[in-house]
Amino acid sequence: MALLNGFVTLALVIGLGALLAHLRVVTETTQRELSSLAFWVAAPALILTTMARTDLDAALVGSTVAALASVVVAGGAYAAYARWWLHRDLEELLVGVLCSTYVNAGNLGLAIAGYVLGNAAAVVPAILVQLLLLQPLALAVLESRTRGRTGLLQVATQPLRTPLTVASIAGLVLSATGWQLPTAVQAPIELVGAMAIPAMLLAYGIALRLGPGLAEAGGRTELGVIVACKLVLQPLTAYAVAVLLGIGGPALVAVVVTASLPTAQNIFIIASRYRRAETLARDSVLLTTLASVPVIVGAVLVLG
User: Fold this and answer.
1) Whose CB has fewer CB within 10 Å in the chain, the N or C terminal residue?
2) Strand, helix or coil at 103?
3) Weakest mean pLDDT among 68-72, 101-105, 114-118, 153-157
4) Distance between CA atoms of 235 and 189, rounded to whole angstroms?
C-alpha cells in the first residue's frame, strides 16, 4: 500500500503540472525555469544532505559497479545493432547509445528514490557513472567528430561544473570523514533541498503536456530496440551483477529501479546541439518515459 501511495502521489503532482500547462497557467518558460532551479540548486542540496547521512559500505560500491555494467551491456547491444545492421555513423550511433543507457536519475530518479524508495541516495551510483564517465566521453567524441576539435580541457572539467556531481562528491566526503556542516549552513540547505522533488515533478508534467508528440514516420524498429535495451536489458543486467556481488534487500531494489528509469531529457538537448539523431532522441525520451512506469512498478513489486 505504501508503494501504491507513493506512485499515486508522484502521478498526481505530475498531473498537476500537466493540468496547469493545459490551462495555460504555466508555459514552457515555467518548465525550463523550474528545471533549471531544480538542477542547479534544489537537487544538489538534496543530494548533498542525503549523501552526508549515507553510510559508505560495500553496497554503494557494488551498486556503482552494477550501474556501470548495465550501461556497458545495454549500450553495447544497441551499438552492435546500429553499426552492423543499420550502418549508422559514429555520431548517430553514440546518440543512440545514450538513448539506450542514460537514465533520468537527476529528475525523475531523485523523485522516485526519495519518495517511493525512501532514499534519494539510491540514484547516486548512476549519477556518478553518467556524469563522471559516460557523458564526458560522449561529448569528447561528439566535439571531435562534429566540430573538428576535441575540447579536452572543457570535457575533462565538465564533471566539476555539474552541480549534481559536485554535490555527490561533497556529500561522499562528509560521509567518509564524519564531518558535519554547522547548523546555520545545514538548515537552509535542507530547506532548499526539500523543494527539489516537487519542482522536478511539476516541470515534468508541464513538459509532458507541452512537449512534442511521437513522430509518425520511420525508425520504429530502432526505437523498439532502444526501448528493449533501456527497459529490459539494462535492468536485467543491473540485477544480475548486483546479485553476483551479494547485494540484496532495499539496495537491490534501488539498483534495478534506477536502471529501469527512462532516458534522460538532456539526451535530446545533446542531440539537438550536435544535430545528430534528434528525432530518435526525442522519441526515445517519450517512449521510455511511458513504458518505464509498469517496468518500475513491476520491479518494486517483484523485488520489494
Assistant:
1) N
2) strand
3) 153-157
4) 33
Q: Is the pLDDT of residue 20 over 90?
A: yes
Q: How far is CA 180 from CA 101, 131, 150, in A?
A: 35, 26, 40
Q: Which residues of 266-291 are buried (b: 16+ CB within 10 A; e: fewer)?
A: bbbebbeebebbbbbbbbbbbbbbeb
The identity of residue 111, as a single letter, is A
Which residue type does 14 have? Answer: I
Give the amino acid at 54: T
Distance CA 297, CA 275 (A): 35
pLDDT confidence of residue 152: 60
Residue carrying the nine cell digits 516541470: 203
Dihedral (C-alpha) 84, 86, 89, 93: value to the nearest 10 degrees? Answer: -90
Q: Return all residues near 265 (Cβ < 8 A) that are at least 6 apart.
A: 104, 107, 207, 285
Percentage with pLDDT > 90 across the chain: 37
CA distances from 47 to 114, 134, 188, 274 (A): 10, 20, 14, 30
Residue environment code for 247-264, b if the CB has 16+ CB neighbours within 10 A, otherwise e? beeebbbbbbbbbbbbbb
Pull the grid cell for residue 197. 522533488
List, in sequence order, the alpha helices (H) in the chain. 2-22, 28-37, 43-52, 58-84, 90-101, 110-111, 124-129, 135-147, 152-157, 163-177, 183-193, 196-210, 220-228, 234-244, 249-259, 266-274, 278-303
Do 96 and 280 contact (CB within 8 A), yes or no? Answer: yes
Instruction: State the pTM of this model.
Output: 0.78
At 24-62, the pLDDT tens digits run 999 989 988 888 888 889 988 988 988 787 776 666 789
